[in-house]
C-alpha cells in the first residue's frame, strides 16, 4: 500500500544484485512511494544482467560504479544529477563483501589483502560515496543517506569474521560524516541494523540457515524480512524522520535487546 511518502524525491540505490537483494526491494518500494531513482552496482555485478528487469520496472537508468573507485562515483553522481535535472534527495548504500568470509578463512587466520579489500568495499565505500556527494554538493538540504549493517558490529558472531570489523567501521563513518554533513547541509546519515536475511551476501556466511532459525527464535517479533527493511528505509528517506541522524537503528524484531527467549531455552533441553 503506497502513501506517496517520497513524491518528488530523487535517489540513488546501490547494491541491487537480484530480486532477493535488500536494495532490489527498496528500489521497488521507493518508486511505489513516488520517487525517481538511479540504479547502480559494480560493473561485474551488472554483467549478470538481472538488474535490467528492475530497471524496467522502476523506469530507472543503470549507471555502473565500483564503490571503491572515486572516478566511478564522481561519474555516477554527475550523471545522476544530469538525469534528474537537479540534486539528489536520498542514497541507499547496500554493499557488502568479505573475501575472507567467502573463502571460509577463520578470523584467526585472515588474509590481509582480502581484509583490506573487504574493508574498502563494505565500509570505506560509504565514506567515498559521502565525500563524493559532499564535494560535488550533490545532495539537497534535508537529504537522507542510509547504509545497511549487522549487529555483529557490537556483539560477537564468530562466523561473521572480518565483516564484523567492516560493519563497526561503517557505523562509525555514518556517525562521523553525519556530523559534518548535518552541519553543512542538514543531510542525515543513519545505518539500519537488519535481521539475518536470505540474500547472496547473507548466504555466504557459514551456518547461515541455522543462524536464521536461531535469530527467529530469539526475536519476539521474529526476523525482519527484506520487504520490511525496504519499508523502514522508505520512512528514513521521507520527511517524517528529518531529525533522525547519526543513529544505528535496529530493525530486527527485538533481537538486539533480548537476552534469551523461552523458545531458545526450550530448544536446549536438559
Ligand atoms: P546482496 O548480495 O544482494 O547485495 C550486496 C551488494 O553489494 C551486491 O549487489 C554486490 O554487487 C554489491 N557490491 C559488492 N562489491 C561492490 C563494489 N565493489 N561496488 C559496488 N557494489 C558492490 O546482499 P544483501 O544481503 O542485500 O546485502 C546488502 C547489505 O545488507 C550489505 O551491506 C549487507 O552486509 C547488509 N546486511 C545483510 C544482511 C543479511 O543477512 N543478508 C543482514 C544485515 C545487513
UniProtKB/TrEMBL annotation:
<protein>
    <recommendedName>
        <fullName>Enoyl-[acyl-carrier-protein] reductase [NADH]</fullName>
        <ecNumber>1.3.1.9</ecNumber>
    </recommendedName>
</protein>
<dbReference type="InterPro" id="IPR036291">
    <property type="entry name" value="NAD(P)-bd_dom_sf"/>
</dbReference>
<keyword id="KW-0275">Fatty acid biosynthesis</keyword>
<keyword id="KW-0560">Oxidoreductase</keyword>
<dbReference type="Pfam" id="PF13561">
    <property type="entry name" value="adh_short_C2"/>
</dbReference>
<dbReference type="InterPro" id="IPR002347">
    <property type="entry name" value="SDR_fam"/>
</dbReference>
<keyword id="KW-0520">NAD</keyword>
<comment type="similarity">
    <text>Belongs to the short-chain dehydrogenases/reductases (SDR) family. FabI subfamily.</text>
</comment>
<dbReference type="InterPro" id="IPR014358">
    <property type="entry name" value="Enoyl-ACP_Rdtase_NADH"/>
</dbReference>
<keyword id="KW-0276">Fatty acid metabolism</keyword>
<keyword id="KW-0444">Lipid biosynthesis</keyword>
<keyword id="KW-0443">Lipid metabolism</keyword>
<comment type="pathway">
    <text>Lipid metabolism; fatty acid biosynthesis.</text>
</comment>
